[in-house]
Specification:
The chain is of the alpha+beta class. It is 30% helix and 23% strand. It contains twelve helices and 22 strands. The strands form five sheets. Strands 1, 2, 9, 10, 11, 12, 19 and 20 form an eight-stranded mixed sheet that branches. Strands 13, 15, 16, 17 and 18 form a five-stranded antiparallel sheet that branches. The protein is globular and about 65 Å long.
Length: 478
C-alpha cells in the first residue's frame, strides 16, 4: 500500500517522484524496463527549448518556459551537464519572414527573455557554417542543451535517496478502483495506492482509457537521428532549427553537452508503440535536410544512428490533471517535445495536484542535492594522482574512446539505482558511446558487471530482458 504509485520512470515520472519526495508520502515508481530512462526520455534531441514554439496560452508553453528557467539551478543541485548555448531558427528567404516574426511574437507572449531576430550578417558571425542561403534567424540566447540520460538518472536517484521506491521489470497490466484505493495489477503482482500518476509515455492513453469514459489517443511519432564524432562537435555552437512545419521543429543541427554533433529528428507517425528501429529512408532524410540550414556538415564522421518515439496526443497538448471521473488518477500524458525542457515544471505541477488532495506534511529530511558519477577529468593533476593512489581502479582505462575508467564503472554499478546492464553503464558513464561504439570496451565492462553483481556472463544483457550478449550451452565455462 502506497500513497502514490507512478507508472513510468522517464523524466516526467522521475521529476514527479522527486518533487513528491519533498513530502511525507510513500511513493513507488513502476517501470516495465530494467532501468530508468528506457523510453522516450533516452532517445531525443537533448534540447532545453526556450519556449517560443508552443501555442500561447497552452500548458506546453507555460511549463516549457518555467522548466527552462529551472534547469540551470537543477543541474547544479543534481550534478548533471547543462549548457545555455542558445538556439537559432533559420529563415531561408524573405518570403518566409512573416512566419519568423510570428514565432518571435509568440515567444514574447510566452514570456521568453532576450529573444530577437538577427539579420544575415550577424547570423554569419554567430554561426560561420550557417547556410549561404540563410536570410535571417530567430535568436534565443536562453535555449540550452542537456544530457537526457544524466537528467533522468539524477532525478530518479535523488528521489530514491529521499525514500521513493522503484520497481523495475514491472509491467502494468490493469488498473481498477477498489473502494478508496487504486489497485494496479502488474507482472509482479498487485500494488495499491490512494493516487496513481500515469506517466507512461506512448502507453499513457492505454492506462487513461482503462479508467475514464473520456478517451484520449496517443500516436507514436518516430524520429531518426545521426550522431557525429567529437571531431565534428564544433561545427556549430548553437542549436540550429529550421522554421517549424506541420510535424514540429524539423531537422536540427546541434552540439551536445559531451562534444558530439547531433542531427535529427525526422517525424513519422507509426502504429507500433515500441517501433524504435531506424530506416534507410529516415536517415537519408536526416542527412539531406540537415544540410539545408548548415553547410559542409562532415557526414563521414557519423558514428551511430538511433530513433526515438514522441508521445503525440491528438490535441498536441500536455494533459496533466486529476481525471474528473476517476478520483485519485492523475494523467501526465501527451508529454512530447518540449517535454524534456518542461520536466522540472511537470514534476512541480503533478506534486501540486497530489499535495492539494492528500495534504501531506513536508519531509524534514529531504535532501535536494546529489553528486553524479565522479569524472576524473574534472580533477587537477594532483587530485587525480591522489585518487588513483587511494582507488587504483580510477587509473585503469576501460573505454578508450571516452577515456572511462574502471572506477567510474564501479561507481555507476554501486550507486543508488545502479547500472545492471551494458546500456545502464553507458548511460551513466558514456563507456561505449565513443567512436568504436563499445566494440573495444564491452567485454571488459561485462566482466566488471558480472564480478560486481555476482552474475554469470551469460546473464549480462545489453538492456535487460532477453538482450543477452553471450549465448551457448557451456555456461559453466564462464
Amino acid at each position: 500500500m502506497y500513497d502514490v504509485i507512478i507508472i513510468g520512470a522517464g523524466v516526467s515520472g522521475s521529476a514527479s517522484a522527486r518533487e513528491l519526495s519533498r513530502y511525507k508520502l510513500s511513493v513507488c515508481v513502476l517501470e516495465r524496463e530494467e532501468d530508468v530512462c528506457c523510453g522516450t526520455s533516452k532517445a531525443n534531441s537533448g534540447i532545453v527549448h526556450a519556449g517560443f514554439d508552443a501555442a500561447s496560452g497552452s500548458l506546453m508553453a507555460k511549463l516549457n518556459v518555467r522548466g527552462s528557467q529551472m534547469m540551470e539551478q537543477l543541474s547544479k543541485d543534481l550534478d548533471f551537464p547543462f549548457k545555455r548555448n542558445g538556439s537559432l531558427v533559420v529563415c531561408l528567404s524573405e518570403e518566409d519572414m512573416p512566419k519568423l516574426r510570428e514565432l518571435y511574437d509568440r515567444g514574447i507572449t510566452n514570456g521568453v527573455k532576450e529573444l530577437r531576430i538577427v539579420e544575415r550578417e550577424e547570423l554569419k558571425e554567430l554561426e560561420p557554417n550557417i547556410s549561404d542561403e540563410a536570410y535571417a534567424a530567430l535568436y534565443a540566447p536562453t535555449g540550452g542543451i542537456v544530457c537526457p540520460f544524466n537528467l533522468n538518472i539524477a532525478l530518479a536517484e535523488n528521489a530514491n535517496m529521499n525514500g521513493v521506491k522503484f520497481e523495475f521489470g514491472t509491467e502494468v497490466q490493469n488498473i481498477q478502483k477498489n473502494g478508496d484505493f487504486w489497485e494496479v495489477h502488474t507482472s509482479k503482482g498487485a500494488f495499491r495506492a490512494k493516487c496513481v500518476v500515469n506517466a507512461a509515455g506512448v502507453y499513457a492513453d492505454k492506462f487513461h482509457n482503462m479508467v475514464s469514459k473520456e478517451k484520449i489517443h496517443i500516436t507514436p511519432r518516430r524520429g531518426d537521428y545521426c550522431l557525429l564524432d567529437k571531431t565534428a562537435g564544433n561545427h556549430v555552437s548553437h542549436t540550429v532549427f529550421a522554421l517549424p512545419g506541420k510535424f514540429g521543429k524539423g531537422i536540427l543541427v546541434s552540439p551536445t553537452v559531451h562534444g558530439n554533433l547531433l542531427l535529427g529528428p525526422t517525424a513519422l507517425d507509426i502504429d507500433d508503440k515500441d517501433g524504435t528501429n531506424t530506416t534507410r529512408e529516415g536517415l537519408d532524410q536526416v542527412l539531406s535536410k540537415a544540410g539545408m540550414n548548415v553547410k559542409d556538415i562532415p557526414m563521414r564522421k557519423v558514428i551511430t544512428s538511433f530513433a526515438g518515439l514522441r508521445a503525440h496526443e491528438d490535441a498536441h497538448e500536455f494533459i496533466i490533471r486529476e481525471l474528473p471521473d476517476a478520483e485519485g488518477f492523475i494523467d501526465c500524458a501527451g508529454i512530447e517535445s518540449p517535454g524534456l525542457s518542461s520536466c522540472p515544471a511537470i514534476g512541480e505541477m503533478v506534486a501540486g495536484i497530489i499535495c492539494a488532495k492528500l495534504q501531506p506534511e513536508e519531509n524534514p529530511d529531504f535532501v535536494a542535492t546529489r553528486k553524479g558519477v565522479l569524472d576524473p577529468d574534472t580533477l587537477s593533476k594532483e587530485e587525480r594522482v591522489a585518487l588513483i593512489k587511494e582507488k587504483p581502479a580510477y587509473g585503469n582505462i576501460i573505454c578508450r574512446c571516452e577515456m572511462i575508467t574502471e572506477g567510474e564503472i564501479l561507481d555507476a554499478i554501486h550507486r543508488p539505482l545502479g547500472a545492471k546492464s551494458l546500456d545502464g553503464v553507458k548511460r551513466r558513464t558514456r563507456a561505449g558511446m565513443g567512436r568504436c561504439q563499445s566494440g573495444f570496451c564491452s567485454p571488459r565492462t561485462m566482466e566488471i558487471l558480472a564480478r560486481e553483481l555476482d552474475m554469470s556472463m551469460f546473464d549480462i544483457t545489453k538492456s535487460g530482458g532477453n538482450s543477452h550478449i553471450v549465448v551457448g550451452t557451456n555456461k559453466d565455462r564462464i
